Amino acid sequence: MKNLLRPAIVLLLALTVVTGLLYPAIVTALGQAAFSHRANGSIIEQDGKAVGSELIGQQFDAPRYFWGRLSATTPNPYNASASSGSNLGPTNPALADEIKSRITALDDPASAPVDLVTSSGSGLDPEISPAAAAYQVERVAKARGLPRARVETLVAQSTSGRQFGLFGEPRVNVLKLNLALDDVR
Fold first, then answer.
1. HSE on the CB side for 11, CA within 13 Å?
2. Which residues of 27-173 form beta strands (DSSP E)?
3. Residue 26: in which H helix or E strand, if any?
4. pLDDT tens digits along 109-158
5. DSSP for residue 124
6. CA distance 44 to 60
7. What's the predicted TM-score (pTM) here?
8. How far apart are CA 10 and CA 25, in angstroms?
9. Dist CA 88 CA 23 (whole Å)
């Protein structure tokens, strides 16, 4: 028994050092060196102050801003520590009631893109579809007193294509778009 105890303790200590200290330190150093912005949460700063992350949605509900995908996190929307979907199934009446209440807040519910009336699986999506952004252009332009064409240009500039030209769908980061709108003089 004593012959097995010493090697087991040595192996435990060696693996603890390698997997608990060395590996995390190397991965952290590589992440900071190669992908510093992403490794630090993709924080967007304005005037030296953090205003949000590219990766987590924020609540915008004023008419002068583009609205993002709705958050299913409760009780505080877009709470990263409570990230989850609503877990409401398609036959659940609570889901139907939730969608109906969201639709009533829209100007033309019949043509509303689905991502404006449904929440995401994580409840934290920072992006909307270009169709959802286009749907909101008229309201935002009117609320800001800007020409529609100027707002459409900002949407186009804020639209990202498919990753590597192949994966996913085109998308618009709502925080970046709203910050660009705030910069318009």
1. 5
2. 43-46, 49-53, 127-128, 159-160, 171-173
3. helix 23-34
4. 778 888 888 877 676 788 999 999 999 999 999 999 999 999 999 999 99
5. -
6. 16
7. 0.77
8. 21
9. 40
